[in-house]
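Lecture notes, unit on protein representations.

Consider one protein chain, 252 amino acids long.
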Amino acid sequence: MTKKIHTPQARKHKFYIRNFISLFLIGSVLLEVASGVALYLAPSGRVAQTMSWELLWLTKTQWEAIHTVFGLLWIPILATHIFLNWKPILSYLKNHTTRAFAFKRELLAALAVVLFFALGSVYNWPPVSQVMALSESMSSFWENRGRTAGYFIPEETVVHPETTATTPTNPSTPADPTLSSTVSTKRGYGKYTVQSWAEENKVELQTALKRLADLGINAKADESLLALSGRSGKLPSELAAIILGQPLSTPE
């Protein structure tokens, strides 16, 4: 029986799963760190959408997607890494002669640090509380900067109304088969784009865009009501009403 010889040419075309896993973990760690830093520095979603905030040409929503996707990918990849390297991992943790766990002090210290920061995150202990406070100050910084730059940034209570009731349309408004009979406030207006709000309320997209354009608001179908609010100076709720063809209430 002849022994199979692995030539350099054969190795060149062979796929090494261990190498792939290791390189993937390195790349994903870098992306997780980068996205974590980006989200730490980012303003709140309300401000980010209003200002169309970006960091390195990516929006906050895109950074969130990267952070979430690669965090989830870590589960199967890390499980595969442990499966493929189970023996080396055990050899690292155990003493070869006594088969007892080595590095007991290091293991206990690592567990203590992990537990401390986990509980600190839950109960807002120092220094975690200071770290989170700095993140809040970054959000305030971006909000103030946006207002200084001329963006109309609505208050949190306006963007995310607490009520879950529905507001009936104005009875004096002429009947229009494209209008919905109610305006849903089950979730914040900031989650809607012009198109999604129109579709949910059974308004033709072109009709919605025309109603906005008639008031001098040039909108795009995929533009969020928050971003449009920042450009137009109208509240998200006012933009929602315009799309539905409802007259805006005037202060008495």
